[in-house]
Amino acid sequence: MTLSLEDRLAITELIALHGHLVDDGALDRLAEVFTADVVYDLSDFGQGTLTGPDAIREAALAHGAANPVAHHVTNVVVERPDGGEVRVRSKGIGVRADGSCGSVTYEDTVVRVGGSWRIAHRSVLARRVPLGGAGQG
What we know:
Layout: H1 5-24, E1 34-41, E2 49-51, H2 53-63, E3 70-78, E4 85-95, E5 101-113, E6 116-126
Parallel strand pairs: 1-6
Antiparallel strand pairs: 1-2, 3-4, 4-5, 5-6
Protein backbone atom coordinates (compact mmCIF):
# COMPACT_ATOMS: atom_id res chain seq x y z
CA MET A 1 0.00 0.00 0.00
CA THR A 2 1.27 3.42 -0.94
CA LEU A 3 0.12 6.53 0.88
CA SER A 4 -1.08 9.48 -1.13
CA LEU A 5 0.27 12.95 -0.42
CA GLU A 6 -3.18 13.81 0.96
CA ASP A 7 -2.96 10.91 3.43
CA ARG A 8 0.55 11.92 4.50
CA LEU A 9 -0.61 15.50 5.08
CA ALA A 10 -3.70 14.34 7.01
CA ILE A 11 -1.56 12.06 9.22
CA THR A 12 0.97 14.83 9.89
CA GLU A 13 -1.84 17.22 10.83
CA LEU A 14 -3.36 14.53 13.08
CA ILE A 15 -0.05 14.25 14.97
CA ALA A 16 0.07 18.05 15.35
CA LEU A 17 -3.56 18.33 16.48
CA HIS A 18 -2.87 16.43 19.72
CA GLY A 19 -0.68 19.23 21.10
CA HIS A 20 -3.16 21.93 20.18
CA LEU A 21 -6.06 20.14 21.86
CA VAL A 22 -4.12 19.37 25.04
CA ASP A 23 -2.63 22.85 25.33
CA ASP A 24 -6.08 24.40 24.77
CA GLY A 25 -7.61 22.12 27.41
CA ALA A 26 -9.96 20.71 24.75
CA LEU A 27 -9.67 17.23 26.22
CA ASP A 28 -13.25 16.42 25.26
CA ARG A 29 -12.04 16.41 21.62
CA LEU A 30 -9.37 13.69 22.04
CA ALA A 31 -11.56 11.28 20.03
CA GLU A 32 -10.61 13.42 17.01
CA VAL A 33 -7.03 12.17 17.45
CA PHE A 34 -7.34 8.70 18.97
CA THR A 35 -9.34 5.55 18.27
CA ALA A 36 -11.94 4.57 20.86
CA ASP A 37 -9.64 1.79 22.10
CA VAL A 38 -6.30 3.60 21.77
CA VAL A 39 -3.46 2.29 23.94
CA TYR A 40 -1.40 5.22 25.26
CA ASP A 41 1.82 3.76 26.64
CA LEU A 42 3.58 5.78 29.33
CA SER A 43 5.60 2.83 30.66
CA ASP A 44 8.88 4.64 30.01
CA PHE A 45 7.75 7.13 32.67
CA GLY A 46 6.66 4.41 35.10
CA GLN A 47 2.99 5.20 34.53
CA GLY A 48 1.85 2.09 32.63
CA THR A 49 -0.71 2.33 29.85
CA LEU A 50 -4.01 4.12 29.38
CA THR A 51 -6.80 2.75 27.20
CA GLY A 52 -9.24 5.04 25.41
CA PRO A 53 -9.55 8.82 25.08
CA ASP A 54 -11.49 9.10 28.36
CA ALA A 55 -8.61 7.53 30.30
CA ILE A 56 -6.16 9.93 28.64
CA ARG A 57 -8.39 12.88 29.52
CA GLU A 58 -8.77 11.73 33.15
CA ALA A 59 -5.01 11.24 33.52
CA ALA A 60 -4.32 14.72 32.13
CA LEU A 61 -6.84 16.28 34.50
CA ALA A 62 -5.37 14.35 37.45
CA HIS A 63 -1.88 15.58 36.48
CA GLY A 64 -3.25 19.14 36.73
CA ALA A 65 -0.68 21.94 36.97
CA ALA A 66 2.15 19.43 36.43
CA ASN A 67 1.16 19.18 32.75
CA PRO A 68 3.35 21.07 30.28
CA VAL A 69 1.88 24.40 29.18
CA ALA A 70 3.02 23.72 25.61
CA HIS A 71 3.44 20.58 23.51
CA HIS A 72 5.47 20.99 20.32
CA VAL A 73 5.78 18.19 17.76
CA THR A 74 8.57 18.13 15.20
CA ASN A 75 10.44 15.77 12.89
CA VAL A 76 7.36 13.80 11.85
CA VAL A 77 8.28 10.74 9.80
CA VAL A 78 5.45 8.76 8.21
CA GLU A 79 6.75 5.28 7.46
CA ARG A 80 5.46 2.89 4.85
CA PRO A 81 2.23 1.28 5.86
CA ASP A 82 2.08 -2.29 7.11
CA GLY A 83 -1.27 -3.59 5.93
CA GLY A 84 -3.80 -0.95 6.99
CA GLU A 85 -1.56 0.50 9.71
CA VAL A 86 0.89 3.37 9.30
CA ARG A 87 3.89 3.86 11.59
CA VAL A 88 4.70 7.43 12.55
CA ARG A 89 7.66 8.67 14.59
CA SER A 90 7.93 12.23 15.84
CA LYS A 91 9.75 14.29 18.43
CA GLY A 92 7.90 16.09 21.18
CA ILE A 93 9.05 19.00 23.28
CA GLY A 94 7.11 19.87 26.42
CA VAL A 95 7.53 23.28 28.03
CA ARG A 96 6.57 23.56 31.68
CA ALA A 97 5.19 26.62 33.44
CA ASP A 98 8.60 27.27 35.06
CA GLY A 99 10.26 27.39 31.63
CA SER A 100 12.00 24.04 31.90
CA CYS A 101 11.43 21.58 29.12
CA GLY A 102 11.82 17.95 28.19
CA SER A 103 11.89 15.92 25.02
CA VAL A 104 10.19 12.68 24.04
CA THR A 105 9.85 10.48 21.01
CA TYR A 106 6.33 9.52 20.00
CA GLU A 107 5.98 6.15 18.26
CA ASP A 108 2.49 5.93 16.83
CA THR A 109 0.42 3.39 14.96
CA VAL A 110 -2.16 5.22 12.86
CA VAL A 111 -5.20 3.60 11.25
CA ARG A 112 -8.05 4.76 9.08
CA VAL A 113 -11.40 4.99 10.88
CA GLY A 114 -14.15 5.73 8.43
CA GLY A 115 -12.71 8.49 6.26
CA SER A 116 -10.25 9.82 8.85
CA TRP A 117 -6.93 8.81 10.36
CA ARG A 118 -6.65 8.14 14.11
CA ILE A 119 -3.86 7.07 16.45
CA ALA A 120 -4.52 3.49 17.65
CA HIS A 121 -1.34 3.11 19.71
CA ARG A 122 1.10 5.68 21.07
CA SER A 123 4.29 4.99 22.99
CA VAL A 124 5.85 8.03 24.65
CA LEU A 125 9.57 7.50 25.11
CA ALA A 126 11.67 9.82 27.27
CA ARG A 127 14.81 11.33 25.81
CA ARG A 128 17.27 11.18 28.71
CA VAL A 129 20.74 10.93 27.18
CA PRO A 130 22.37 12.39 24.07
CA LEU A 131 22.81 10.28 20.95
CA GLY A 132 20.37 7.68 22.24
CA GLY A 133 23.10 6.50 24.62
CA ALA A 134 25.71 5.84 21.91
CA GLY A 135 29.20 6.69 23.13
CA GLN A 136 28.18 6.60 26.81
CA GLY A 137 31.16 4.73 28.25
